[in-house]
Amino acid sequence: MAHATGHQTGFVLVGKGTSPTGRMNPFKNDLVLAIRGTASLYDASTDCRANLSVCDGGHSVHAGFNTLFETLKSELAPFLSELKPSATVHCVGHSLGGAVASLVADWAKRRFNANVKLYTFGAPKVSLTNFALSTTNALKSKNIFRCVNGGDVVPMVPFWPFMQAPYNPPEYRMDNNQIIAPWHHLMKYYTRNSQKQSWDSINKRVTFNPFKRVTLDISHANQVQPSIY
After folding, report:
1. Is the pLDDT of residue 39 over 70?
2. Which of 158, 157, 152, 154 is nearest to 174 (CA)?
3. What is the CATH classification number for the domain harbouring 214?
4. pLDDT value at position 93?
């Protein structure tokens, strides 16, 4: 839709670390790439294009996310090429922004050999297993912070065979909600649940394994609830 109408919109806020006079700042050479989420019908069309395409790393990824990512590369490349060896790139995004941040993080690691940390909030799944494994191995699990609210349904989609990174390690559960609540996907709930928390204080939970067969015993049907499991 955006290509057909010639529509353009800002998607990434770039932040550069600075070193105030007379103070030491360990983040002075770092780069923050903050990528926004869905904000228009154009973005919704991107979310819905859940067929597959091949990213420049040769892996199978969500076509809509990959198309959007490709439009950002030429503008992000100059910032990444100027990085100092000791600098870290922090890729962060909510929802659609988190999905694109995953692609940016993988690209920054492969193309520029940068130190990369990835932070996603309520991000949908981005790829098939090959990309999820490759990104996990390249960035290392300790540098990937996949954050979800308990009732948020967006991190559960697209369904199998799409997977998320990190592959197998736990994700950060921002609250203890067990019942599906679509409105918990809103940024204000992630902002609220992020207040006054450290990474060590947030609960970690291994995500549901889509390759594990699940069967329902009819004698236990009365126990079925609209839970995230």
Report:
1. no
2. 152
3. 3.40.50.1820
4. 96
